[in-house]
Design goal:
Number of strands: 10
Number of domains: 2
Order of helices and strands: HEHEHEHHEEHHEHHEHEEEHHHH
Structural class: alpha/beta
Helix content: 40-55%
CATH topology of the largest domain: D-Maltodextrin-Binding Protein, domain 2
Mean pLDDT: 91
Strand order of the largest sheet: 7-6-8-5-9
CATH superfamily of the largest domain: Periplasmic binding protein-like II
Number of helices: 14
CATH architecture of the largest domain: 3-Layer(aba) Sandwich
CATH class of the largest domain: Alpha Beta
Low-confidence stretches: 6-18
């Protein structure tokens, strides 16, 4: 091959390599819902903006994902308003959803030049759950009713015991009694413990996939103890400037993921063992 052809090949390969290099990086934390949301956002950008998207999913916990966003290792990731308020901004609990969103929006914009887009439509808050038969037999629909009924054998995750919006505050606000010390376990074991009657009440998440298929009742937080955890995309301002259509493309997902839909999507990954990429593709195929 002569020199001119070699140079042409090198230029072509270099151009192809540059063309494949991700223009936008989407991140997520390290649990099913986050990975699934990250994949939905990545595919949404690919199909609407037609640019290559890198995926940095399963980054870890809140502070790791936030640090990656601030440093510019990723351009965006999904976050929850209550988590941002308490864990990132270190501000007191707040029950008013719109007020929390405004506080995190202003705080993130002022300190890090990060923008919170319109919420996706679901609130993944802590949720106290009992077996369906327990709720029906006791005519229980709210936490205040459960607190007045009797002491509960409770199952909780490790984090729930220590969080400012966790166990101690719940017991205090509702005057709830426990039958012995609450059993602390991995989150994945909570539903099994409830079904097998090792515990009678669990502290889980409102958008867990198993809620959509098991006979479980979520007790209403009628004293508004838990802060809102509305999920939204957080994106770097310089990324929005580089891609003027990015905001509109991402906000096409706003409001399209109510609690019921998020539970179903989570179950397809955790319960039906589908790949997050497959679940994301099928969701977007039927989403305008």
């Amino acid at each position: 091959m002569d020199r001119a052809k070699v140079v042409a090949c090198v230029i072509a390969l270099s151009a192809a390599s540059c063309a494949r290099r991700p223009a936008i990086f989407v991140g997520s934390k390290n649990f099913t819902e986050q990975v699934l949301l990250g994949e939905i956002m990545a595919q949404q950008i690919e199909r609407r903006l037609h640019v290559p998207v890198g995926r940095s999913l399963n980054l870890g916990g809140t502070l790791l994902a936030h640090e990656a966003l601030v440093k510019g290792d990723i351009d965006l990731y999904p976050e929850y308003t209550g988590t941002a308020l308490t864990a990132v901004l270190k501000q007191p609990l707040e029950a008013n959803g719109p007020a929390v969103l405004e506080k995190v929006r202003s705080g993130y914009a002022r300190r890090w030049r990060l923008t919170w887009l319109a919420p996706l439509g679901f609130n993944n808050t802590f949720a106290m759950m009992v077996r369906g038969e327990t709720a029906r037999s006791g005519n229980l629909s709210a936490l205040s009713q459960a607190a007045a009924a009797h002491a509960w054998r409770m199952g909780i995750g490790y984090e729930f015991r220590q969080r400012p919006d966790g166990l101690d505050g719940l017991l205090r606000v509702y005057g709830m009694r426990t039958a012995g010390d609450p059993v602390t376990m991995d989150l994945g074991l909570l539903y099994q413990a409830l079904e097998s009657r090792k515990v009678d009440m669990i502290a889980a998440n409102s958008t867990d996939g198993l809620v959509s298929v098991l006979d479980i009742a979520i007790l209403a937080d009628d004293r508004h103890y838990f802060p809102p955890y509305d999920c939204a995309v957080v994106v770097r301002d310089d990324s929005l400037a580089r891609f003027p259509e990015l905001r509109e493309v991402l906000e096409q997902l706003s409001g399209k993921l109510p609690d019921r839909v998020m539970r179903q999507l989570n179950y397809r990954v955790d319960g039906a063992h589908e790949q997050p990429s497959q679940v994301a593709t099928r969701f977007l195929a039927v989403t305008p």
